[in-house]
Amino acid sequence: MKETRRIEFFFEIFRIVLALAIAFGFTFICIAFMTDDPLEALKAFALGPFSNMRRFGQMMGKFIPYLLVGSGMCFIYAANRFNMGGEGVYLLSGCIVTFIGVNIGDSGIPHVLLVVLLMAVGVAIGAGAGLIPALMREKLGVNETVISIMLNYALMYLSTFLVKTLMVDPNISYLGSKPLPDNMKLTRLVPRTNIHSGLFVGLLAVVVVGVIFYRTSLGYSIRICGSNPQFAKASGINMTSSLVLAQVIGLGLCGLGGAVDIMGIYDRYVWAGFTNYGFDGMLVAVLARKNPWLVPLGSFLLAYMRTGASILNYSTELPFEFVDIMQAILVLLIAGEHFMAGFKNKIIFSASKAKNKKEAA
Amino acid sequence: MAEVLRMQNITKIYSNGFMANKDVNLVVNEGEIHALVGENGAGKTTLMKILFGMEDFQGGQILLDGKDAHISDPLDAIAKGIGMVHQHFMQVPSLTVAENVTLGMEPGKGGMFDHRQAVKMTQEISDKYQLKVDANARIADMGVGLRQKVEILKALIRNCRILILDEPTAVLTPQETKELFVQLKALRDSGISIIFISHKLEEVMELCSRVTVLRAGRTVGSDVIENLNPASISRMMVGRDVVLKIEKEAAKPTETVLEVSGVSRRSKEHVTVVDDVSFGIRRGEIVGIAGVEGNGQNDVAEMIAGMASIDHGDIQVNGKSIKGKKIRQIREQGVAYISEDRMTHGCAANLPIRENIMADRVHSKEYKKFGIFTDTKKINQHVEELIREYEVSCDDASQPVRMLSGGNIQKVIVAREFTSGADLIIANQPTRGIDVGTTEMIRKTLVRKAREEGVATLLVSSDLNEILEVSDRLLVMKDGKIVAHFRDASQVSEDLLGEYMLGVKAMTAEEMGDLL
Fold first, then answer.
1. Which of A2, A198, B276, B477 has a CA positioned 20 to 30 A from the CA of residue A244?
2. B271 class by beta-carbon count within 10 Å (0-12 exposed, 13-18 middle, 19+ buried)
3. ipTM score here?
4. B16, B377, B410: which to substitute to probe chain A, counting the most A Cβ within 10 Å?
5. pLDDT for B308-324, tens place per residue?
6. Domains of chain A, first to last
């Protein structure tokens, strides 16, 4: 049956490539209809993110938090939980990190220590908030999707409340915190771009997640629980703790994402609504087929699409939202297990027939 | 005799690439009982699922009355006169026989259900074929034998001409089997063709007029019964002479490992499924529990494994109670469990063989490095070793279990459970639906573990041959109670066992003696 495995592997790749091709093709058709100069628009979209360092930096600025939220969501998916709390956690963590940074940033604390401390706070906020839907699910049997969606709103308004009451800067005309002290800002790896040292944190997180996934007993337990809970139970795996931990670690990473994003790119905390990074983490995990080692690829793909769309948005009359169509097609085709399944089966059938003929002969 | 069914060069491939049927041919004549035999995993059930429209197929043709028939789904199959009695009955327990039988073709007008007419229709068919089923009885109150008759009724009332029976005797006692055979012969004489799936050759010889033998997905032969004998069919089935006899010395049991004292359990529906059961198993002996399925044996096995709660009484393993303990703790106390349902409780189909074997032991210190990381090298070594020792046919340890055949999946499961270092192994239907080679390996390993390593073994099985061959002592369960205890299983005949299973006989407490 080695043949079958080879075919399945080939199709996994083929499916993703085909999904990409269909999504891009469809987008280009839309572009062609909507603009006067489709070739120019196409160029802006496809090559825009690479056309200069600033734009490339823009893309990397998205790529870094995607690494964190994406690998976090891999955990939650592997446990077969649909916990969507990443978004709220992202906001609250950014908010608290700002609050602490603004208050102690200029107290003479060394830069590295401050940054590490604030990242730890980000993880703690994420993990702490993640406990709410996780415990409710595993201890009380409440649907984690419903709880986490409600939690997102609670955390978003909590963040806005904190900004308004404790952190607001009265000297600016919009709602935002006081400016972040330079001491808490991450180092720019390339000056005047969004490429900051959070990149290392993101890549490190991917490695740590990959190791936990495949090289610790917790990773084994989480994957077994997610794959077949009844078997996990029969094997004596502590399901409650494995599943709670999966969600706590997952949302902890989303919290870290919020902290790194704030410290890497922003001058103040200005998030007044959903950033969508928490939700995008789910897309990244889907694009990565729930495999942490593929998260960098999924993150890059999504960051590239998003950046291309925003360049297109300010260089032509096309709205930014059109990229959502492309993204939707991509996710549908990649997540849809039945896409191309008939074709795959046909190939498996004929391979099996050929093999049997050979054996008979 | 006219030919009613011809299945020609049927080829079926599952989406994991496994070819379950290879150019299979089957011809059934009008008014005959045709045996479809083959060892477990030979493709009999798959072939019948294709005929009944439950599975698609990749090559070949089905002819009904000589005409090409496209059977798209089970409804279509029923419309074309094909009826199937599955191994697992498709019934609504809270409804009456008449309601179950007429479900989907309810008599009545304008959306109203004519109950009286339904009962009349059902009773007429039952009486006509002497199935002796009361149309007003509730399914929940009926035994397995009668429920099987209801399945047959369902097919008959839909005017079936071809009746498929998938291992109908597996759930029956010898006495119920005899009664079923009389009725099947009556059906045959009234012109119905019956396809009888079995691997019990005595039954085939007694009942059937022609036999088609499958082996490893291929037709190896088809002949009238007069030209065959059990030995020749058996040779065709497995390609060699097999004797499923287990050679074993007498048990020399020592100290008690398992002590079950007065346990009871009620199901979710508040039916008492285990009723004050007490017994013990000592080191080095195999105790079998026989019984018609659904008489509490499975519940006893699950309670000891920690999968089901104990409502009353106590279970002790190695002198310590397991009541209220987590499954991990019970396993650490020395229990291994081969579950009845291997795809639900025995494996995670999408995960690699490695993960499936490591599931119960990945937490132990033995497989850790620096206290947190798993020792990949050691794990791979261990898994490779087990794959070799248990002859799992696979590409490598990272192959997902779903790609293996049923027999090989079971090998992965027993490889794990047999090597967990347990003092007590609970084997719940360990060889059901498994090919002869794997069955033999599992049975022999059970005996070897008991004799050489002194493992106490509880064997729950509805395969009478297995339970009589492998067990040292034998218990029989009926309605949640132990009704018989044989000190020496090898002295018990299938007929005698059947009488206890059916409840015709029951031992008194004195006759059973000490169950330890």
1. A198
2. exposed
3. 0.83
4. B16
5. 999 999 999 999 999 98
6. 58-302 (1.10.3470)
